[in-house]
């Protein structure tokens, strides 16, 4: 959705909690991404912490993780660009699933309005392994984003698919997937038609 850079230059510190209970990662970065030069003295601070509350408990509970992420930067001095994310994920032999919530603020200049955005996403990939080494896997995802919380416009996205993983051959994994991807744009100032795609991968 354009809220983050895929990579950036900076310095960071990472620490693993004892007994695999989670980790903390803190860093200071240029904030503009690897593809741009830093235009000013404003640096971005990023903090991510993950906790596995049942790391030494029953195996079925060990895949539960709770994560918090904060990105604090400024376009220029006193013009904020911040993102706060809360995430819960679950990893298991038969199911991977997650829920994400984001709150973002963007004020591109001192005189510009501070635009707040919010959104959430849920996804799951249930799996059914077969005795011959193959497996079936479903993909389910739903996103809801409000680019500006002061207006009623929102964007939703629904993805649903099914994949067949062929029996594993050495180090190569091969799958065939059929999926549906649909997006709707509600109450946008410039009307946008719904988008629907069906694809085979």
List the helices and strands and how they pair.
Blueprint: E1 10-16, E2 22-29, E3 44-51, E4 64-76, E5 79-91, E6 95-106, E7 115-129, E8 135-146, E9 154-165, E10 175-186, E11 195-200
Antiparallel strand pairs: 1-2, 2-3, 3-4, 4-5, 5-6, 6-7, 7-8, 8-9, 9-10, 10-11
General shape: globular
Helix-strand sequence: EEEEEEEEEEE
Total number of helices: 0
Helix share bin: under 10%
The share of residues in extended strands comes to over 45%
- Runs in which pLDDT lies below 50 for 5 or more consecutive residues are none
The gyration radius over C-alpha positions equals: 20 Å
Most strands sheet: 11 strands, antiparallel
| SS-based class | mainly beta
Distance between the termini: 23 Å
Features:
mainly beta; 0% helix; globular; eleven-stranded antiparallel beta sheet; 201 residues; 59% strand
Characterization of the model:
- The protein is mainly beta.
- Helices cover 0% and strands 59% of the residues.
- It has no helices and 11 strands.
- It has strands at residues 10-16, 22-29, 44-51, 64-76, 79-91, 95-106, 115-129, 135-146, 154-165, 175-186, 195-200.
- The protein has an 11-stranded antiparallel beta sheet, with no helix packed on it.
- A hairpin with a 7-residue loop joins strand 8 (135-146) and strand 9 (154-165).
- It is globular, with a radius of gyration of 20 Å.
- The chain starts with 9 loop residues before the first strand and ends with a strand.
- The mean pLDDT is 92.
